[in-house]
Amino acid sequence: MLHDAWDHIGNTHERESRLTGLSTDFIDLDDITSGLQKSELIVIAARPSIGKSSLVLNIAENVGNGKDKKPVLIFSMEMS
Fold first, then answer.
1. Residue pair 24/36 in contact by the 8 Å Cβ criterion
2. Is 78 assigned a catalytic role?
3. Angle at 21 between CA 17 and CA 25, to 5 degrees
């Protein structure tokens, strides 16, 4: 398992474009995550009033209006 992960890291590093999933249009985030992957469930968590909703809405808008124009669904457990 570790060997597979190491190979994946090496292959990602050798590719010209490190983006393997959907771009968030946040370059640093895409560099760290290689984009949003099909197999991932992404949870954004932080203390109140940090900007979680703004971040998620920006990412959703970027994915929905990006070059791939993918449909986006957001579930929020926020109690307002």
1. yes
2. yes
3. 75
Each residue's pLDDT expressed in tens, for the chain with a length of 80 residues: 788 878 777 776 666 567 889 999 999 999 888 899 998 888 899 999 999 999 999 999 999 998 888 999 888 887 65
- From the candidates 14, 40, 61, 78, which is the catalytic residue? 78
Number of domains in the chain: 1
Q: Is residue 10 part of a domain?
A: yes
Domain membership of residue 27 as a residue range: 2-65
Ramachandran angles phi, psi of 35, nearest 5°? 95, 180
Residue 32 lies inside a defined structural domain of this protein: yes
State the SS3 of the chain: CHHHHHHHHHHHHHCCCCCCCECCCCHHHHHHHCCECCCCCCCCCCCCCCCHHHHHHHHHHHHHHCCCCCCCCCCCCCCC
